[in-house]
Amino acid sequence: MISIDLTLKYTPIPISVQRKESEDANSLYETIISAMRSPTPELIELTCEKQTEKKVAVMSDQISAVIVSQKDGTAAAGRVPGFFALAEPDQ
Question: What is the pTM of this model?
Answer without folding.
Answer: 0.74
